[in-house]
Amino acid sequence: GENVEQHPSTLSVQEGDSAVIKCTYSDSASNYFPWYKQELGKRPQLIIDIRSNVGEKKDQRIAVTLNKTAKHFSLHITETQPEDSAVYFCAATPFGNEKLTFGTGTRLTIIP
Amino acid sequence: AAGVIQSPRHLIKEKRETATLKCYPIPRHDTVYWYQQGPGQDPQFLISFYEKMQSDKGSIPDRFSAQQFSDYHSELNMSSLELGDSALYFCASSSMSGGALSDTQYFGPGTRLTVL
């Protein structure tokens, strides 16, 4: 089955700086890679996703890159703000309508 | 926009009791997923349903069962509860019929189950 590794487990950055979270996956059949943001005790919220036919996707301050050959994908947050503080999970699946396999999460703290 | 609804939001049970968690997917979504999230852990897939049929099964204990009804809502039934079952249980929904671009999984607010 799919195995997703995520690094780092914790990340602290100064407000306004950039944050990068990296994930690797094992199953070459995976084609859909969403990123979820989860605040304490709340639901995972989709912030961006990417499919295997695209190498990069951007939405305002958030971008995701995908390298299918190397089986890794990354989340980039620029101009970080205090409200970006949360746990971020990457995930992988062959298709969006199949089970998600999550990474172990990154606790991001933005220092004002 | 309507979101995934879960009930109850909080549930406290004693060991060996039973619990039923309910999930109401986003309207017109035909696929429901259940995930279990322990403290400080990532969500773990339990089971999923498409058009009222089980579509996939993960690390769900035999003590748990689930089904999807004709109105697409789903229920997760948990029996002989153990202390280790204490967790957040999330339901997510998606639509297969809308094509690849509409298959994103949207999560409900979760049910926090505490087993004493």
Structure description:
The complex is a heterodimer of chains A (112) and B (116). In chain A, 0% of the residues lie in helices and 54% in strands. Chain A has 112 residues and is an all-beta fold. In chain A, strands 2, 4, 5, 9, 10 and 11 form a six-stranded mixed β-sheet that branches. In chain A, strands 1-3-8-7-6 form a five-stranded antiparallel β-sheet, with no helix packed on it. The radius of gyration of chain A is 13 Å and the shape is globular. The N and C termini of chain A lie far apart (41 Å). The mean pLDDT of chain A is 95. By secondary structure, chain B is mainly β. Chain B has no helices and eleven strands. Helices cover 0% and strands 49% of the residues of chain B. In chain B, a hairpin with a 6-residue loop joins strand 4 and strand 5 (44-50). The radius of gyration of chain B is 14 Å and the shape is globular. In chain B, strands 2, 4, 5, 6, 9, 10 and 11 form a seven-stranded mixed β-sheet that branches. The N and C termini of chain B lie far apart (37 Å). Classes of the chains: A mainly beta (112), B mainly beta (116).
Largest sheet of chain A: 6 strands, mixed
Shape of chain A: globular
Got a strand count of chain A?
A: 11
- Measured distance between first and last alpha carbons of chain A: 41 Å
Measured on Cα atoms, how large is the radius of gyration of chain A?
Answer: 13 Å
Please give the number of β-strands of chain B. 11
Helix-and-strand structural type of chain B: mainly beta
Low-pLDDT ranges of chain A: none
Percent of residues of chain B in beta strands?
over 45%
Number of helices of chain A: 0
The major sheet of chain B is characterized as: 7 strands, mixed
- What string gives the helices and strands of chain B in order? EEEEEEEEEEE
The helix-and-strand class of chain A reads mainly beta
* Largest protein-protein interface: A-B, 23 and 27 residues
Spatial separation of the terminal alpha carbons of chain B: 37 Å
What is the share of helical residues of chain B?
Answer: under 10%
Q: In terms of quaternary structure, what is this?
A: heterodimer
Mean pLDDT of chain A: 95
SSE ordering of chain A:
EEEEEEEEEEE
The amount of beta strand of chain A, in percent, is over 45%
